[in-house]
C-alpha cells in the first residue's frame, strides 16, 4: 500500500487515526492496535509475507532475550547470520545463481529461483539487527514484551522505506511518548509536504526519466536528451525517497513518535563526503555504527586498514541497494571518490565552492545513471551518449518537448532541492510581526498542495516508488 494512494489517504489512515485516538486511555491498547494495523498494512500487497515479518520479530525477540541472559558472542553471530541468511535468500539468491551459472559449464547449470522480493525487507532486517546488537552491547534494555518489539520492527510509517530507526531512538517513546495537537498539526503538514514532493515532482520526473532511459536502451540518443534523462532521474530519486521520508516522519508525529531526519538538502553539497552526510542519513549512520566502527573506522594506525574499512562499507552499501552489478559498482564508484577526497583533504582545500559543487553534482548525477541502468552495458552506453560518444548529435526535438511539457516541475525540483523554503520560513518566523499575513496564509498553502496532489492521484498519474525495491 503506497502512502501516495487514495486507499491509504482516505480509508486506511483516517480509520487508524480514529481507532488510535479513540483508545487514548490505554497506551498498551494503542500499541497493540498499531502493531495489528502495521501487519495489515504490510500484508496488503502480499499477505503471505506477513508470516516472514512475524518470523523476523519472533526470532529477534528470542535471540535478544538469550543474548541478554547469557551475553555470549556466538549467540550474536547466530542472530546476524540468521537475519542476513533470510535477506540473502529473498534478495540475492537469484542473483547469486545467475552469476554462478555464468561462471560454470552449461552441463552444471542450476535452476534460477523466481523469488518475489518482500517489500522493505532490507529496512526491517537492519532495524531488527540493530536492536539485537545494541542489546549485546548493553546500549539498550532488552524488550521483554514481544508485541512492543514487533511494533518497533513493523511500525507502518517507516516500515517499507525508512528511515532506519534504531531501537535506542524510540525505546522510551513506545510507552512514554506524548501526543499533542502541535505534534499532530506539524506531522500533518510534514506529511502533505512529502506527499506533494512525491506526487507533483518525483512522479513527473519519473515520466521523463523512464521514457528517456527506455529510448536509450533501444538505441543511442543525443547529448541533450541523455543529460535531461539523467537530471530528471536525479530529481526523481531525491523527491521520491525524501518525500517518503517526510511522510514517514510526519505520520510518526501524528502518532506521537519523533523519528530522526533522513535528508538534509544533499544537492547543495560540495563534496561526495558531504553528500553522504546529507543523503539517507539513517543508512549511513547504520553502516558507520555497526560496520565501520567495529572494523576500526579511520582511527586504525595502518592507512591500508582504513581503506579496507571504507571499501567494505561501500561495497555493502552498494549491495544493500540491490542484487545487480550496477549497484555493486555504484557503491565502489562512491568509495573511490570518497577515498580520494580524504587522501587529498579535498573538503579543506582552497578550490572555489562553485567548482566543488559542480564537481559533486556531476559525480552524483553520473552515479545515479549507473544506479538507474538495467546493467553495466546500458550504463556505459548512456554515459557515452551524455558526452557525445554515441554520435547522435547534440540536440533533439524530444528534449525540448519534455522540457516544454514539464518546465514548472523541473524548475520546482531544482529550486526546492535547495534550502530556500527553509530559510524563508525561518526569516518569516523571526519577523512574524511584519509578515503576519504570510504566516496566516501557510495553512491555506498546505491545503492547496494537498488538493492539487489528490487531483493528480485521482487523475491516475504515474506513481512508481523506487525504494520499494529495497
Secondary structure elements and pairings:
Layout: H1 6-22, H2 27-43, H3 49-70, H4 73-103, H5 121-137, H6 146-154, H7 156-159, H8 167-170, H9 173-176, H10 181-218, H11 223-254, H12 272-278, H13 281-295, H14 303-321, H15 325-344, H16 353-372, H17 376-386, H18 397-415, H19 420-430, H20 436-458
Describe, in plain words, how this protein is organized in 3D.
The protein has 470 residues and is mainly α. 72% of the residues lie in helices and 0% in strands. The chain is built from 20 helices and no strands. The protein has helices at residues 6-22, 27-43, 49-70, 73-103, 121-137, 146-154, 156-159, 167-170, 173-176, 181-218, 223-254, 272-278, 281-295, 303-321, 325-344, 353-372, 376-386, 397-415, 420-430, 436-458. Helix 1 (6-22) packs antiparallel against helix 2 (27-43), helix 10 packs antiparallel against helix 11 and helix 10 packs across helix 20 (436-458). The radius of gyration is 23 Å and the shape is globular. The protein starts with 5 loop residues before the first helix and ends in a 12-residue tail after the last helix. The mean pLDDT is 89.
Amino acid at each position: 500500500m503506497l502512502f501516495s494512494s487514495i486507499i491509504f489517504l482516505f480509508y486506511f489512515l483516517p480509520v487508524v487515526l480514529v481507532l488510535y485516538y479513540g483508545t487514548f486511555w490505554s497506551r498498551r491498547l494503542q500499541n497493540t492496535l498499531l502493531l495489528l494495523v502495521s501487519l495489515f498494512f504490510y500484508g496488503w500487497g502480499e499477505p503471505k509475507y506477513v508470516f516472514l515479518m512475524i518470523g523476523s520479530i519472533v526470532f529477534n525477540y528470542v535471540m535478544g532475550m538469550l543474548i541478554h541472559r547469557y551475553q555470549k558472542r556466538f549467540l550474536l553471530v547466530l542472530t546476524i547470520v540468521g537475519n542476513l541468511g533470510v535477506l540473502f535468500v529473498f534478495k540475492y539468491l537469484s542473483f547469486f545463481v545467475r552469476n554462478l551459472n555464468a561462471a560454470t559449464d552449461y552441463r552444471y547449470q542450476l535452476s534460477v529461483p523466481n523469488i518475489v522480493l518482500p517489500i522493505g525487507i532490507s529496512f526491517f532486517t537492519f532495524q531488527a539487527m540493530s536492536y539485537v546488537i545494541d542489546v549485546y552491547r548493553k546500549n539498550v534494555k532488552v524488550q521483554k514484551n514481544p508485541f512492543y518489539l514487533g511494533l518497533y520492527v513493523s511500525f507502518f510509517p517507516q516500515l517499507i522505506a525508512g528511515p532506519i530507526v534504531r531501537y535506542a531512538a524510540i525505546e522510551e517513546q513506545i510507552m512514554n511518548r506524548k501526543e499533542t495537537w502541535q505534534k499532530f498539526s506539524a506531522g500533518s503538514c510534514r506529511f502533505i509536504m512529502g506527499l506533494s514532493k512525491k506526487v507533483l515532482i518525483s512522479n513527473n520526473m519519473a515520466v521523463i526519466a523512464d521514457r528517456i532511459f527506455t529510448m536509450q536502451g533501444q538505441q543511442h540518443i543525443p547529448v541533450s536528451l541523455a543529460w535531461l534523462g539523467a537530471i530528471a532521474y536525479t530529481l526523481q530519486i531525491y523527491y521520491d525517497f525524501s518525500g517518503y521520508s517526510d511522510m514517514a516522519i510526519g505520520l510518526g508525529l501524528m502518532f506521537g513518535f519523533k523519528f530522526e531526519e533522513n535528508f538534509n538538502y544533499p544537492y547543495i553539497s560540495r563534496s561526495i563526503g558531504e553528500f553522504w552526510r546529507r543523503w539517507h542519513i539513517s543508512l549511513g549512520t547504520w553502516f558507520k555504527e555497526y560496520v565501520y566502527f567495529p572494523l576500526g573506522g579511520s582511527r586504525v594506525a595502518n592507512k591500508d586498514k582504513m581503506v579496507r574499512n571504507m571499501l567494505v562499507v561501500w561495497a555493502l552499501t552498494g549491495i544493500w541497494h540491490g542484487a545487480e552489478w550496477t549497484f555493486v559498482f555504484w557503491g565502489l564508484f562512491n568509495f573511490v571518490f570518497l577515498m580520494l577526497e580524504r587522501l587529498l583533504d579535498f573538503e579543506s582545500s582552497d578550490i572555489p565552492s562553485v567548482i566543488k559543487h559542480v564537481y559533486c553534482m556531476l559525480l552524483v548525477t553520473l552515479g545515479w545513471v549507473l544506479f538507474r541502468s538495467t546493467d553495466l552495458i546500458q550504463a556505459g552506453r548512456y554515459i557515452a551518449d551524455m558526452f557525445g560518444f554515441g554520435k547522435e548529435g547534440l540536440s533533439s526535438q524530444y528534449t525540448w518537448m519534455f522540457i516544454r511539457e514539464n518546465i514548472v516541475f523541473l524548475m520546482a525540483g531544482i529550486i526546492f532541492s535547495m534550502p530556500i523554503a527553509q530559510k524563508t520560513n525561518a526569516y518569516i518566523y523571526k519577523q512574524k510581526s511584519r509578515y503576519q499575513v504570510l504566516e496566516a496564509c501557510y495553512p491555506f498553502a498546505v491545503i492547496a498542495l494537498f488538493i492539487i496532489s489528490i487531483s493528480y492521484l485521482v487523475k491516475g498519474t504515474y506513481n512508481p516508488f523506487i525504494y520499494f525495491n529495497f
